[in-house]
Each structure stands twice: as C-alpha cells, then as structure tokens.
Amino acid sequence: MAVHKSKKSRSCRGMRRSHDSLGKPTLSVDVGTGETHLRHHVSPKGYYKGKEIIKQKAEVEQESDEG
C-alpha cells in the first residue's frame, strides 16, 4: 500500500483546490422575445436564435380545434 512521504501542507492543499470552484452559468438574452436563457439552449417559451422551435400547448390546441 502506498504511504505518503510527508504531510501535504494547508497551503499546497489550498492551491490544489483553487480551481475546483463552480463558475456562474453563462446566460443569453433571446433576440426576439428578450427572455434570459442558458447559452445554446431553447428559451422557456420555445425560442432559439429568434425562431420559434417548440410550439406552446395553447397554440397547438388552437390549431387542432380550427383544423
């Protein structure tokens, strides 16, 4: 079994851990709706890069009632 030759100091431990923290999520604002969303993700209302990708439930139900 491997055994440490000497104890790691608090300083070395802290320097090793200095890069372990989590960064803040990168947010973008949609061009068409002005909604804030994660980059490279669809906004909550179904828009991506200003285009509607996913239709909302209410819109789908209205189209099915009409047709």
Description of the structure:
There is one protein chain. The protein is built from 2 helices and 4 strands; from the N terminus they run H-E-E-E-E-H. With 67 residues, it is an alpha+beta fold. It has a domain at 25-55.
Low-confidence segments:
none
Spatial gap, N to C terminus: 73 Å
Q: What is the string of helix and strand elements?
A: HEEEEH
Rg over CA atoms: 25 Å
Helix count? 2
Number of strands: 4
Strand content: 5-15%
Main sheet strand line-up: 1-2
Instruction: Give the % helix.
Output: 25-40%
Tell the overall outline. Answer: elongated
Q: How would you classify the helix and strand content by structural class?
A: alpha+beta
Largest sheet: 2 strands, antiparallel
* Mean pLDDT across every amino acid position: 86
Write a short abstract of this structure.
The protein is of the alpha+beta class and 67 residues long.
Name some characteristics of this structure.
alpha+beta; elongated; 2 helices; 67 residues
Topology record:
Elements: H1 10-17, E1 27-29, E2 36-38, E3 47-48, E4 51-52, H2 57-66
